[in-house]
Structure formats: C-alpha cells, structure tokens
Design goal:
The complex is a heterodimer of chains A (192) and B (337).
Chain A: H1 6-15, H2 18-40, H3 43-59, H4 70-89, H5 97-100, H6 123-131, H7 135-146, H8 151-158, H9 162-191
Helix pairs in contact in A: 1-2, 2-3, 2-4, 3-4, 4-8, 6-9, 7-9, 8-9
Chain B: H1 2-6, H2 9-13, H3 16-23, H4 27-39, H5 44-55, H6 66-79, H7 87-96, H8 98-115, E1 125-129, E2 136-139, E3 145-148, E4 153-157, E5 163-167, E6 169-173, E7 184-187, E8 191-195, E9 199-203, E10 209-215, E11 218-222, E12 227-230, E13 234-238, E14 245-249, E15 263-270, H9 271-282, E16 285-288, H10 291-294, E17 297-303, H11 307-318, E18 320-325, E19 328-333
Parallel strand pairs in B: 5-7, 16-19
Antiparallel strand pairs in B: 1-4, 2-3, 3-6, 4-5, 6-9, 7-8, 8-11, 9-10, 10-13, 11-12, 13-14, 15-17, 18-19
Helix pairs in contact in B: 3-4, 3-5, 7-8
Classes of the chains: A mainly alpha (192), B alpha+beta (337).
C-alpha cells in the first residue's frame, strides 16, 4: 500500500531533513538491497555500497533538479555504483557487465508464490526453471514481477529499448511455459 | 499490413481494459475482449503473449525486515549529520513548522481522495494485507489475535494498536486489559465495534459490514450515530449506503467465521452465496448455465485452502459440474445426475 507518493518523498528528501531522508530510505532500501544482492551475490558488499549510495544521494541532492521517475532513477544509479565497486574489487580490470554478473539472479523456492497462473508442479520446480534462464531474462523478470516495475522503467534501468524489454519478457515466459509442460509430462511418465 | 502492426504487444499492454480482461477483473472488459478475440482470431498469439506478460510470475518478496532497515538507517543518519527522527520528533516538526505541515496536507489530500484512507504516516502505522486466497494469522502488539481472510486489509497507528481499521473479512480474539478497561476498536466504513475482551467476526464485503459475536460482549457504533449492544450468537449487519440494519440470532453451530480453520461451513445456503465467497477470496468470476443452479442449497463444510479441492467438494454437494478456466468458474448441470 502506497502511503506517500514518490513526489512527496522526494520533496522532503531535498529539503534535507531527517524525515525526508528516512522516508526515502525506508521505502527504497529494501528493494534496492535485494536487487543489489541478486546482482552481486555478496551481502556485505551490497549493504556497504547501498549505504554509501544513500549518503551520496543526500549530499548531491541539490544537483538533481527534478526526477521524472524516482524508482527507475534509484535502481539505475545504484546498479552503476555497484558495478563500479565490483570492478574496483577486481583490481580495476575493466570487465563487461555480463561477465561480472555471471551467476547472478538465483531464486529460492521460498521466493516463488504458490499462486501462479501457469500450472507448475511446485515452487522449487519453478525456481529451478527460472534459474536456468539467461541472466538478462532473469533480470527483466525480477524487475517486472519482483520489484513491480513498469516495462518502460525496466528499459531505462537495463539500458535497452522498450521493445527489447517486451521481447525478453515474452521469450523468458514462453521458455518457462514450455519447460514446465515438459517437466509435467516427464513426471506423469515417471509415475505410470 | 497496417492492421497487423497496429495490434502489437504494446497495443494490448497499454490498454487498461485488456489488463482487466487478462486478470479476470471487470465483467464488461471480460465480455468485450472475449468478443474481440472471437472476431480477431488472427491476433490470438499476440493476445496470449500479452496476457502472459500481464499475469507473469508471482514472487514472495524476501525483503529485509523493518528492524534491519531501521538499523541500517541508524548507521547512516549520523554520517550525514542528521539525528534519527522518532515519531514524537515528527509531530514536533509539524507544530513548529506550520508551513511544512500545510504542504504535507496538500500533497496527501490527493492520496486520500483515491485510497479513502485517512491521513497516517508510514513511520507510525502498520498495514497487513492479504492476497486473493491467502489467509494469515496475526498477533497484534497488545496480544490480540487476528485471522485475516483473503483479499482483506487491516491497518492501525503504532501508537494505538487497539484501534484497527478493516476492509474485508477478519476474525478477532481480543486480549482484555483488565487494569485499565482499555477498549479495543474495529472501524469499518459502516460502523465501529467497541470491545472489552471477546471473540468476534467482522466482514465488510457486499458494501455492508457484518459482525458476528462468538464470546463476550461488544458495542457497535453505527456510522448513522446509533449505538447497539450485542450478545454472543448474534449477528448485526449494517450498510452505510443503504442504511439497512439487521440484528438477529445466528446458528452458532455453523459459525460464520469457520473459514479461519480452513473450511467454509454452510447450512442450507444457496449456491450463489457460496460462490460469492469464492469469488471474493480467490478473485474469480462465476457463471451459471441456468438461474436454477444458483438456488441449489448446500449444507456442510467446504475446505477452502485449496481451490481445486473446494471446487470438487461443491460439485459433489450440488451435483453440478464446475469448469475452471482462466479465473472463470462455469457451473453446469452434471448429465450423470
């Protein structure tokens, strides 16, 4: 349930009072922390980086005049910061994102709701199937259905076109559907 | 060719009525799009893709707990030279800086108009919400237990955890505070329940509020100003809209709040009433082959934790056939019977 709109929160954040900072922090620390964790697989690094991110955001609050979309802005800037930090830890060897996040975005069965439109055998099956997708597909699925982001905002965060977001979504979901059907068939065969 | 380009994924995804259809939400939208698809079968693939994007995958968000976030916040605030803002601090800021408060009021006015909730602060209030088909057990800070049925929400201000707002359906077992005789309140759009320590059931579906009292005694303050007392085994139903008030005894052998134990109990209840419960808790739409089917009477318990089992039980109890497809339950006569 949305108690304060992003406009309200951002207004108070820019005023530089503790209330505004706390509102923004409490709303966006949880989703950003989990996003960072999914990207980096490293809790200490993610939390450290995220706290510094909020501090810098506060110190630079006068530099940004107006932000159209706070959520997308926070996700994209935090992701950039996290990548920088990870590269630093790799002794500044420039590596591309794809390599950096090779084994990222894994989901546990507990993170999958039992209420699904697609018929799956169980949550752990669905988790396994999702984890087998490409990391780009997983990130789009994550941003869309875990973080509840609009497709246009996902395009901004992932730096791809809106049409690509839709294509990746469609591809990822149809892969899940297909492999879920296969898995169900295999299980039926096993039983008999 | 032009036509083909026009009906792309984006066309469907940006249409709110299509989204309703995909989620099975609005009857008009469902009728419209079912019709549209029949007449535009060549677009079925795009329609299916768009639908699967809308419904997607449902995740349980494993976000850090409030305590963890508060701890992190407490570490960060000193680094930027700010003191933690406590609830009392927030109140002080308001009285000292009146211009700040007017802005809060102005911005929040917009929020109030569409959520219809009164102003409260995310720092100082707690919200519990259930999805369709989900039942949760809650313990409030004062020791009161609440069972919240699907598609329901309760919220309260942390300073006053014995004043609960409810939308939907819930069962309360209130912990008495004998020393102070502090009352426990449940407020709905239609009435307020004042409680000393008791067990009761509140349901706000169907644009009215039903209260059933199991144990103890409660007092109701209807939103038309009337005050009425209830004794165990009674049910009061009041609608602020229609001003209709019903006050009668109910059969306590088949309590209204049995769903909290995972069963709906029915005593000679017409099928349409039973299905209404399912529509609300699971977010489904029910269609009948004929109007006679609506009136079939059901007695007994129907398990409600699993929709498939629930449907099977209703089929057996009524001798009907229920087809479940895409959030629609279609009830037909069973030729075998």
């Amino acid at each position: 349930m949305e108690l304060h709109s992003d406009e309200t929160i951002w207004y108070f954040f820019k005023k530089g009072e503790a209330t505004g900072f706390s509102l923004l922090f409490k709303k966006y620390y949880p989703p950003l922390q989990v996003y960072g964790l999914k990207l980096s697989n490293n809790q200490a690094l993610t939390e450290d980086c995220l706290q510094n991110f909020f501090i810098q955001l506060f110190e630079d609050r006068h530099k940004q005049n107006s932000i159209n979309n706070l959520k997308a802005y926070l996700f994209v800037s935090f992701k950039r910061r996290l990548i920088k930090q990870l590269q630093k830890n790799q002794n500044n060897i420039p590596i591309i994102e794809a390599q950096l996040f090779k084994s990222n975005f894994t989901f546990s069965a507990e993170e999958i709701s039992v209420h699904q439109e697609i018929q799956f055998l169980c949550t752990s099956t669905l988790a396994t199937l999702i984890n087998k997708l490409s990391s780009r597909e997983k990130e789009v699925l994550y941003l869309k259905y875990y973080s509840g982001m609009k497709s246009a905002d996902i395009a901004e965060v992932m730096d791809i076109s809106y049409q690509s977001v839709l294509n990746v979504l469609q591809k990822g979901l149809s892969k899940l559907r297909k492999s879920s059907e296969n898995k169900q068939i295999r299980n039926i065969l096993k039983k008999s | 060719m032009d036509n083909k380009n026009k009906f792309d994924l984006h066309y469907f995804l940006s249409d709110v009525s299509f989204e309703n259809w995909a989620k099975g939400l609005n009857k008009n939208d469902i009728t419209y799009w079912n019709n549209w698809i029949q007449n535009n079968a060549e677009h079925i693939e795009t329609v299916e893709n768009a639908k699967s994007i809308i419904t997607g995958i449902k995740f349980n968000q494993h976000y850090p707990s409030n305590e963890k976030v508060d701890q992190a916040l407490a570490r960060v605030l000193p680094k930027i030279g700010l003191k933690p803002s406590t609830k009392t601090k927030l109140n002080k800021t308001r009285t000292i800086n009146s211009s700040l408060f007017t802005i809060v009021a102005a911005v929040l006015l917009v929020l109030i108009s569409y959520t219809s909730y009164s102003f409260f602060n995310s720092n100082s209030s707690t919200v519990h919400k259930t999805n369709f088909g989900e039942i949760i057990d809650l313990k409030l800070p004062d020791g009161t237990s609440v069972v919240l049925n699907g598609n329901s929400v309760i919220w309260y201000e942390n300073e006053n955890p014995r004043y609960i707002h409810l939308k939907g359906e819930a069962y309360f077992k209130v912990k008495p505070i004998p020393n102070t005789n502090a009352k426990f309140w449940v407020a709905t759009e239609d009435l307020k329940v004042a409680v000393l320590g008791t067990q009761f059931h509140v349901n706000t579906r169907k644009q009215k509020t039903n209260v059933v009292l199991d144990q103890g005694s409660i007092q109701l303050e209807l939103n038309n100003g009337k005050v009425t007392k209830m004794i165990p085994g009674e049910m009061v139903s009041f609608s602020n809209k229609s001003k209709e008030l019903i006050h009668r005894k109910v059969d306590t052998e088949t309590p209204y709040a049995l769903w909290r134990g995972g069963t709906y109990a029915f005593n000679e209840i017409p099928l349409k009433e039973v299905m209404f419960n399912l529509e609300i808790t699971y977010g489904l739409e029910v269609q009948y082959e004929s109007n006679q089917l609506m009136e079939i009477l059901i007695s007994g318990g129907i398990p409600n934790h699993n929709l498939q089992i629930c449907i099977a039980a209703i089929e057996k109890a009524t001798g009907t056939r229920i087809i479940h497809k895409d959030n629609i339950l279609r009830i037909q006569e069973n030729p075998i019977y």
